Amino acid sequence: MQTSELPQSFRSSVRVVFSARMGILAFLNVLFFVSALLTIFLERLLFPPVFYGSWSPWPFGLLPNNFLLVFIVIFLFNLTFASFLTVTLPGILFFPLSGVALMYKAVLWGLLLYPVSGNMLLATLPTLFLEGEAYVLSAGAGTVAGASWLIHKRLYRGEMLSRREAFKRGMNECLRLYLLIGLLLLIAAFVETTTLMLLT
C-alpha cells in the first residue's frame, strides 16, 4: 500500500465501524457526558463552591520539567490503563461492563472538575472532550467485542456466523476503533502536556 493511500484506508476502516455501530456509540456518548454534567450539577446542590477553594486536577508539583517525557507518560497511561484495561477489557469479558466503567469514569470526572475554577476549567475543556470521546470509543470497542461472543446472533443479525467467526469480526471492529482512539489520545496528550507546561 502506498503512503498516500494510508489516510484513505484509515478513514474507510473507521467509517465502516461507525456506520454499523452508530446507535451504540451515540448511547455511550450520552451516557458519559450527561453523567459527568449530572455529577457536577448534583455537587452544586449539595456543596457550596467555597467548600473546595482553589483546586486543580493536575499534580503540578509531581511533574518533571520535560515535555517529551510528560507527553509519552500521559499518552501511554491513557491508552493502556485509562482506556484498554479499565474500560475496554471488562467489556470484552462481559459487554455491559464497558458501559458501567465508562459511567464510573464520568462520575469521577464530574467530582474532579466541579471545584475547578473558571479559567482552569476552560484550560481543561479541550483535553476533556478529546479524552472523553476516546473513552467513549473505548467503551464501544469493548461492548462490540464482548457482545460478539455472548450475543453474536443478535449483534450480527441475519448473518450465519459461528460464535468464533463473530468474535473475530468483533475484535476486528475493536481494533479499527482503537486506531481512532490512539489518534485522539495522541492529540489529547499533546494538548494536555502543552497546557501543563504553560500553567507551571
Structure description:
It is built from 7 helices and no strands. The protein is mostly helical and 200 residues long. The chain is globular and about 55 Å long. The mean pLDDT is 84.
Brief overview:
With 200 residues, this protein is mainly alpha-helical. The chain is 80% helix and 0% strand.
Low-confidence blocks of residues: none
H/E element order = HHHHHHH
In helices, the fraction of residues equals over 70%
Total helical elements: 7
Number of domains: 1
Quick check: average pLDDT? 84
Largest sheet: none
Query: Ends: how far apart?
Result: 44 Å
Give the oligomeric state: single chain
Strand content: under 5%
Q: What is the overall shape? A: globular
Number of strands: 0
- Sheet/helix structural class: mainly alpha
Rounded radius of gyration (Å):
19 Å
Primary descriptors:
200 residues, mainly alpha, 7 helices
